[in-house]
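Archive entry. Fields below.
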Amino acid sequence: MTFLRSNLLLIVAFIVLEALLGANIAILTLPLGEFRILLHLGTAVVMAVVVAAIFMDLRHAGAMMRLFALGGLMWLAFMWLLFPVDYLTR
Amino acid sequence: MSTERQYLAEQFDDVGQQRHADFLGMWLFLATELLLFGGVFMGFAVNRWLHPQIFGDAAHELDLMLGSINTAILLISGLTMALAERAVALRRKRLTLALMGATLALGVVFLAIKGMEYHKEYSEQLLPMTGLVFAYDGPAEAQMFFNFYFVLTFMHALHMAIGLAIIAVLMVIGRGWKLPDRFDRQVRVVGLYWAFVDIVWVFVFTSLYLLRS
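PREDICTED_STRUCTURE:
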């Protein structure tokens, strides 16, 4: 019990994640048209941030570790930004 | 020779440096994994953008209930693995192994449910594979949706199976509890991998199951 109490943040993060999952499914019922897609993806991004910050403990990671994590996102952003150029310039 | 020296690789000055290098190595590996999955997601996004109605309709063929249950299970396993990392940091052997065992069991349940889904889709002739009848009642472009569905979910399941195998091996190593400092580092590194697998599934579930018309 003491162990769980000392890791309360992990439990809270887990509850938040399950609540976000429920919310993401509930969004299906909202008549929002294409805006619904943004809400679904936005919720997924928030869930990913919670997992990375708390389960992966990125919030306590050093500068180098954060740089490596951001590096992955940067290369992903390059790929995602440059790929549509092909479609947009045809 | 001290216990610390016994598992310190010769290229490192101290245990802290070795630990730091291990974590950096895993983060670098995860960055490459991000690009692997990111490329497939990008292909999915382009095709969904080109055929929004067809992809939105095809998503209705997936079992939302099983997908949701699996997501909830994977999030629980993410918690048990994160708790296992905290337990090993406190050098609590039995608790660490119990939490890793729970993670292992939840992962197996996830894969079993995924297998049930695959069987259902196979029975409904939704597998777009050579030699099999593809019987989806809709435009031919819908086949692309099912291609992405099977590629993404199979890639994820493969990563889970690898993670489960590593957790199982670590549990066997951990039973001896001979080098707890080293075991701590190994559990932390695997914990990073497992959390990444959680994140990937969140996007797989959202993109395939929830972006329906």
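CURATOR_NOTE: Chain B is about 80% helix and 0% strand.
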